Amino acid sequence: MYSTKAIRLKGLTPPLPRVLKVHIGGLLEQFRWELVKPMVVIFSQKTHGEHSNTLLVDWVRGEGRCVLHALFRHLSETILTRCSSGTLVPHKPLSSFKRISISVPLVVRNLRRSVEDGVIDLRDADRILEFNWDGDFCLFALTFRGLLSDRLTVLKISGCFISTDDTVALLHACPNVKTADIKKVCEGSECDLPDTLTPSAEFFQRYYDLSSFTLVSTVPLSPIIMRMAFLHRCPTVKLLLGPEATEDILAAIRGFPKFTKLTIRSCYLQPDVVAAIQG
Questions:
Q1: Which end of the chain is more exposed for a tag (fewer CB within 10 A), N or C?
Q2: CA 248 to chain centre
Q3: What is the pLDDT averaged over residues 18-42?
Q4: pLDDT tens-place string over residues 229-275
Q5: Using CA atoms, how far apart are residues 208 and 214, in angstroms rounded to an integer?
Q6: SS3 at position 251
Q7: pTM for this predicted structure
């Protein structure tokens, strides 16, 4: 179902931001597009002129690929909506979303079939500012295209295992990001699928607005931090580190600005390293 929240401004009546919630699986066993489609169609008919909607997709379990693909195919289609003057106006529902959050199972089976189903092209989501992904990273990397761009101001990836190179590729693709959370970076053999994204062609990327950065990692940080130029004067950085990630921590934190608000959580920091960080 979808909900609305009124925005009341004196003398103004802007379009109402809406939330489209799509559940796949769960108690109602919604594994068929026919069960989800009516709600999505009703929502889509009301999106003309709106640019601040939110899409929440919660794929709990089971074979949900078909519903996921059908959902984004529908949202990418051009539909005609009759406005108050009686004129039919074309628009794409996908362009009405400011925030997209997708949660999928930790492990999605038969990923090859997802590739055979074709990519999900999100280039028409040209108003999106915030993106959150939780679950199997392989599905995102192999299926979704056109999302990562300089439009994004919030990028959160969790519930999965990502290689160092894919982490760099994600961050480099979003140079205007203000909040970035990546959980978590691992050795290639531990990752959902090693190096699935196109590698970044740049050695480092400048971040003028990145004020909040959270990174969970079990591998050394320097290959990531040394390819990021933090230009925000006082960013907040939180690092949750495994044993190998602490090996180069002193070198890595040199990449942060002087007034960084730094929090490090790890059971593997040696006393002399802790003293050096505090000093």
A1: C
A2: 28
A3: 84
A4: 999 989 999 999 999 999 999 999 999 999 999 999 999 999 999 99
A5: 16
A6: helix
A7: 0.89
- What pLDDT digit, counting tens, does each position of 177-192 carry? 999 999 999 986 666 5
With residue 191 as reference, give the H or E element that holds it. Answer: none
Amino acid at position 27, single letter: L
Residue with tokens 């059971």: 267
* ∠ CA 159-219-254, rounded to 5°: 110
Strand residue runs (E) in the chain = 2-4, 18-24, 53-59, 79-82, 88-91, 97-103, 120-121, 130-134, 144-145, 154-158, 179-185, 205-207, 212-217, 228-230, 236-241, 261-265
Amino acid letter, 95:
S
Whole-number Å distance between alpha carbons of 90 and 48: 8
Pairing of strands 154-158, 130-134: parallel
pLDDT band at 203 (very low <50, low <70, confident <90, very high): very high
